[in-house]
Amino acid sequence: MCAIAQSAMAQPTDPDHRPSIGAAGSASERIAFEGKFIQIIQRGGWEFARRVGNRPAVAIVAITDDRRLVLVEQFRPPVGATALELPAGLVGDDPGHAGEAELVAAQRELLEETGYEAAHWRRMLEVVSSAGLSDERVAIYKAWKLKRSNLGGGVGTEAITIHEPPLEEVEALVEARCAAGAVVDSRVLMGLHLALRHMEEIGG
Fold this sequence. Notes:
Layout: E1 3-5, E2 29-34, E3 38-43, E4 46-51, E5 57-63, E6 69-76, E7 81-85, E8 88-90, H1 102-114, E9 116-128, E10 137-148, E11 161-163, H2 170-179, E12 183-185, H3 187-202
Parallel strand pairs: 1-12, 5-10, 7-12
Antiparallel strand pairs: 2-3, 3-4, 5-6, 5-8, 6-7, 6-11, 9-10
């Protein structure tokens, strides 16, 4: 059965407890655990994950001129399988990119993972990764008028496979990758919706 990665329906440690929210907008919190990349935060009766440095993330809905959605697939250790995803990454996650602007990070991630550059960019919305599990927020960018600059595939130890299904075949690709044992990030389906709406807007 296909696994779609989506928001967790977590509950507070004490279901009758509702943490009081202070003037700053959040209850008092403490770091219960800190690893190299992840912290576990306790706030009121909740425990949730936060990236060390609390860096924001970006994801890109990249649309080719011939009505294709650019997707990536890579192995994700937490789920023990490859995941079909939108191109995505963290803002300023490398020492060489400290102070990086959000849009610059989106442009960098698209180029690194897919080999594409885009002439046009638009910030569409901000979503949460999994509101019951983490406070991570992801800015969704739309990119179009793409130009291939290199083969992509990621950097360092990343081994990214690139998929470019026609918009009408994205759902079929999702089903095929699930049947092969992959998982699918739910933002892929959101990306399909935004891409189809984009084509309606430009009359394509």
